[in-house]
Every structure is written in structure tokens, then in C-alpha cells.
Write a structure and sequence with these properties.
The structure holds 2 protein chains of 2 kinds. Chain A is mostly helical. Helices cover about 75% and strands about 0% of the residues of chain A. Chain A is extended and about 55 Å long. By secondary structure, chain B is an all-alpha fold. In chain B, helix 2 crosses helix 3. The chains are: A mainly alpha, B mainly alpha. Chains A and B meet through helix 1, helix 2, helix 3 and helix 4 of A and helix 3, helix 4, helix 5, helix 6 and helix 7 of B.
């Protein structure tokens, strides 16, 4: 698959999910599917974050990345789960740890 | 619409988003070109996808092939479904063209602002969201172009941009953790990712871990 086709594919999927309830308003799915949809984004975000922060090289590493992850979690707790709280404290801990441990 | 008070309020409320999203756009531009996308395609991706999460996932998984990228885009897109349903409730009788336009930039930041503005009684929610969307879109496009064309002197690893990518997803997850079940799902996702990282090919690690953790959440509900 070419890079252009990939970009168009991601764009189509993203737009389809955004427009799903706006073309013809209807109620959100319920039951098991609804509950799965409810928790799946959280699980996916955490999986991607873990993959990038805790195990960037294929296994858990005690690196500055891990300090960034811990800082991000603390930032989330301190700043009421704010995106910018997570980013700010996480980045600060990462750069501090990297300056110390290299 | 473009001159009314709601539009101006939407623009004012989004100034911070303009700069923050612009900075992320620069990071995306640098990472995407570093991952192998051409500068033009990098900019084009920001013009038509308009999703930091999906685009960062795309360049992060570029080496793993199209299947995990499209799976990740689908998984990331699932969070739009409840947002789309909620927005449909708010805008009700707008024309199809307006609804399509509002859907095109249905992102976490401007959706959050729009809901807050609606709850606060802003007169024209469509004008408000349009202004917020334009601010975000401008920042994202300009930032991406700057990163793609002028970011070659930035070493993504040395600058720690990869870490910001991981933190972005952690930050997007944070507001979703509300009840005990969510903490369990988050913990299960960490454990499942570590296991998947050690046992599965790169292409299946993240999606398998996410499905496994979601099933844990489903089991807790029942």
C-alpha cells in the first residue's frame, strides 16, 4: 500500500467515525457493544502510551522515558486529569531524568 | 455567523489551543518526514486527517505496515462515536453540509470547548465551534508545514519528541479514567502491552493489548 493510499485510508476511517451520528442522528449502540466501545479508546490510548514510554525498545526499560511516564501519571492526578498537566509534568520529568542519567 | 459574538468568543477561547496544537503540528511534521513521508504528503495528511492521535499513530507504526495503522485509526476513531452522538444532540436541525463540516474537525479539544460553551448558554454553538475549529486547523496546518519544511535540523530523538507522542496518548487517556473499572482497564492495558511486546510481532502488539484490556473492562461491568 502506498503512503498516499495509507493517508487516504486513515482520513476516511477518521471521518467515518466522526460523521457517524451526524449524517443521520440516531442513538449510540448499547449492550455489550456499547460498553466495549466505551472502554476501548482508554485501553488503546494506554497501550500506545505504554508501548512508546515504558517499552520503546521492545521490553520494559528503566530510562528517562519511564520517568516521563511516571511524571505524566502524577501530572494527571495533580491537575485533575488535564491533558496539559500530563504533558507538562511528564515532559519536565523526562528532560530532568535525561539530564541526570543521560 | 463569522462576525457574531459566539464566533468571536469561540476564537478567543481557542487562542491557547492555536499555539499548543501548532507546537504539536511542528512535532508531527518533524516525525513524519523522519519516518519517511514526503513533505507534501505530510502536509496533505494534516489537511485531510486533522487528528493528532491518528497521525502520530500512523507515523509511529509506519514500519509495521498498513494493517496495524488502519486498525489503530479505527480504534482511535471509536472515541469519536459518542462525541458525534452528543454533537448531533446539540446542533439538531442544521443542514447536512453544516453537519459534515462540523464532523470534519470533531477533535477532543474543540469538542470539549463546544460542550462547555453549550452548557454555559452560548447563543450560536455552530458559530462558536466553527471559530474554535478554524483556530485549531490553522495551528495544525501551519505547525505541520513548519515541522516538515524547516524541522530537518531537529533530531526527534534528541529533542524527545517520541516521548511527547507517548505522553499525548497518556494525556488523552487521563480524562477517561473516572471510575474503578477505568483504573482496572488502564492497568490491564499496561500489563497486556508489556506481555504483547515480549511475545507478539510489532504489528499486533498494541491492538491485541487494547482488545484484551477492553475485555477485562467488559468482564468487570458484568
Amino acid at each position: 500500500m502506498s503512503d498516499l493510499a495509507l493517508v487516504l485510508g486513515v482520513a476516511s476511517i477518521t471521518f467515518a467515525t466522526r460523521v457517524a451520528f451526524l449524517v443521520k442522528p440516531r442513538s449510540a449502540p448499547g449492550g455489550r457493544v456499547g460498553r466495549f466501545l466505551e472502554v476501548f479508546p482508554l485501553a488503546l490510548f494506554i497501550a500506545i502510551a505504554t508501548s512508546g514510554l515504558v517499552a520503546p525498545l521492545g521490553s520494559a526499560q528503566l530510562t528517562a522515558n519511564l520517568a516521563g511516564a511516571l511524571g505524566g501519571v502524577i501530572g494527571g492526578v495533580l491537575f485533575r486529569r488535564s491533558l496539559w498537566g500530563v504533558l507538562g509534568l511528564g515532559a519536565a520529568c523526562f528532560y530532568l531524568a535525561r539530564a541526570i542519567i543521560g | 455567523m463569522f462576525g457574531n459574538a459566539s464566533f468571536r468568543k469561540g476564537a478567543r477561547d481557542s487562542v491557547l489551543i492555536l499555539f499548543a496544537v501548532g507546537a504539536f503540528g511542528v512535532a508531527y511534521g518533524v516525525l513524519a518526514v523522519d519516518a519517511g513521508l514526503s513533505q507534501t504528503l505530510t502536509l496533505f495528511s494534516s489537511v485531510i486527517i486533522v487528528s493528532g492521535a491518528a497521525q502520530f499513530a500512523m507515523v509511529g507504526l509506519l514500519a509495521a505496515g498498513p494493517v496495524p495503522i488502519l486498525l489503530a485509526a479505527t480504534g482511535l476513531g471509536l472515541r469519536h462515536l459518542p462525541m458525534s452522538a452528543r454533537l448531533a444532540d446539540i446542533i439538531e436541525s442544521q443542514s447536512l453540509l453544516t453537519r459534515l463540516r462540523l464532523a470534519f474537525i470533531l477533535v477532543d479539544e474543540t469538542f470539549g470547548l463546544t460542550i462547555r460553551a453549550h452548557d454555559a448558554g452560548v447563543d450560536d454553538v455552530v458559530a462558536y465551534k466553527t471559530a474554535a475549529d478554524l483556530m485549531l486547523y490553522s495551528g495544525w496546518i501551519i505547525g505541520t508545514a513548519a515541522g516538515a519544511w524547516f524541522g530537518s535540523s531537529i533530531d526527534p530523538e534528541a529533542a524527545g519528541i517520541g516521548v511527547l507522542f507517548g505522553l499525548l496518548f497518556l494525556g488523552l487517556a487521563a480524562p477517561m479514567v473516572k471510575v474503578r473499572r477505568d483504573w482496572v482497564v488502564a492497568g490491564a492495558a499496561v500489563v497486556a502491552t508489556l506481555i504483547a511486546t515480549a511475545t507478539l510481532p510489532v504489528a499486533w502488539q498494541v491492538s491485541t493489548a487494547a482488545v484484551a484490556a477492553s475485555l477485562v473492562g467488559l468482564a468487570i461491568d458484568e
